[in-house]
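request received
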Amino acid sequence: MGWDRFLVLWCAGWGVVALIGYGMSLAGVTKAQRTVRLTGRIERVRPPRHGGSRTGGISVVVTYRDPASGQQVTVTNDGERGEMITVAWEGREVGLSHPPGRPHSYRFSNTPQEPGRGLGRPSFALFLVYVGLVVLAALDWGWPCALIGFGGPWALMGAVHLPEAVRAKNRRIERLAAMDTVPGHVVAVLKDVGVDEDGDTWTTITPVVSFTTREGTAVTAHCTSNLPDPAGAYGRDVTVHHTPTDPADFTLDPAAEHRSQKRDVTFHVLMCVVLVATAVTGAALL
Amino acid sequence: MNSSTPTAYRPETRTATNLSLGFLTGAVIGASLTAFIGGCVVERTPLIATGLALPAAYGLLFLFLLATLPHRAREAAVVPRTALAAIESLEAFGGEASDVPVRFELSVAPDDTPAFRVEIRQDVNLVELPDYRRRGIVVVEYPPDRPWKTRILKRPTPEWEDRAALAQIDSVPGPAMKDETPEGCLSGLLTLLGLLLGVAAVLLLFRADLFDSHDAEGSAPRPSVTSSPSSSSSTITVTSATGTVALGPGRSMLDKGELREAVESLTQGADRRRALTVVVQNRLLTVVFSPTDLRTPGFDPRSLPYDRVPELVEEAGTTLGVGSPRSWQLTADGVSGSLRLTIVVTGGGGTGTVQTDGQGNVLRRSGS
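response:
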């Protein structure tokens, strides 16, 4: 079987998978659409133990109202329970989801989630069709087609999303400027040591800061950036900057965040330029 | 609290399924690996394709869709039960990691079912390890149909935490059930047996392709693929690069239909291979095949004007006035791109040559 025929089969196969996926999404029968999504409330935050593990996130007790029975249900984030809760305070709303009819298989998300449409898998199948078509074009009309095929659409997508990225950066910078500043304290430094397949040891250090907002909300949060010498940070006093309406949006160094936002936009622009250059090179060589 | 009979919970029902799955998986691994490697060595596409498609199809269709997914769905549908348990013994196995594996022996005391004793292994963080001590009370969770999958809850709900702080649990006597398949050794042996049978099946099914080609590698002059004499008086030999047909005594390539039949016998099969050169003598046909590279020039050996060959041989002989031709040779050459046929007839009086195009139209005649 020639490469051409194989690629046509590849595209056709993934095309069928994508069509089935989109069809299921339209019919409302994807896993994401059937998932029951609820909003829970953190009732208790258990203090982290210094030297312990970050696995599982901050230990919390969450209650939610079961829509089927109308009863209040109490759960904890023990074991594999979806997203790791890394910022917690009593009264915080978190997302809870479970497959239909299986409330015991609940999973957490840091914020209440909108119901998904289950388009991830069909979109990935469509991406594989696109890759197949580009390779097919490269085989039939020469390899510069691959440069155009890969550079062009992504450059276009990057350019379309650039204004939104700039707006997001501006919004973030505005939020950084309007942040409340409160004193905080490193209440624990979590240390995870593991051994990889090659027998090498890896270590992850996760400082945990605690701070109280002006409204009196006591927040406990994993703080993995902008804290010098994290391994020796236990007991250190820090200054925490947080968005007044959402203490989960906090930082120890707004200036660094500011710089990082600018870097992100620069990187975005650079990527667009590289992709356009790739597509132009492909067109010139064709 | 009294114990129930722990053996009642033994995972015996899954034994047969696990054993047969292990056997089948071993067979598929053995067969696909043999097919793939064998196919690569003898350059047989069907074998390579079998080697790739078999594990993919088995993994996706059988293992995933028919075995794993329904099994997981059944397991996930079981509502786990929470209970208090007393630690009868514990043994930590050290390591460099911060989470160390710990073997627990627990007396589990559910509220509404008989207590049981279970042995489990669970990773515990070194910092939390002192929390677990002999006769300590912990909160556990287990699927009612698989109590050997008991798991200690490190973060129980406040209600269970309070109950654990006040509870007293009696030891459950008797052996502890474990999450160990007693058929461990048998399972391994069956998988190995499956693997060997898979290998044997492929070797047996494709023995002609595999072994004949292997012999060929040991002694270069022998062909990689040989078919037995197709008729009582001709021998066909096909290798990866060439094919020859030698006619028996009393037959000639100039006989009606003989040459075309000989070419057909070399080019039959799944892949119609292209040729670089075709050489025909009175009783011998040799075809040099193109390498399996798309860009290599070549021609379809069946497209030559074989019906015209006797006529062209005659012409090459008579043009030069060769009285009694002793030998002739036709050479079809497609290496240079355009196909040319050269017929050389050698006789007592010299040599006559006729050159034609791919359709047999005479381009040049010469003689000496």
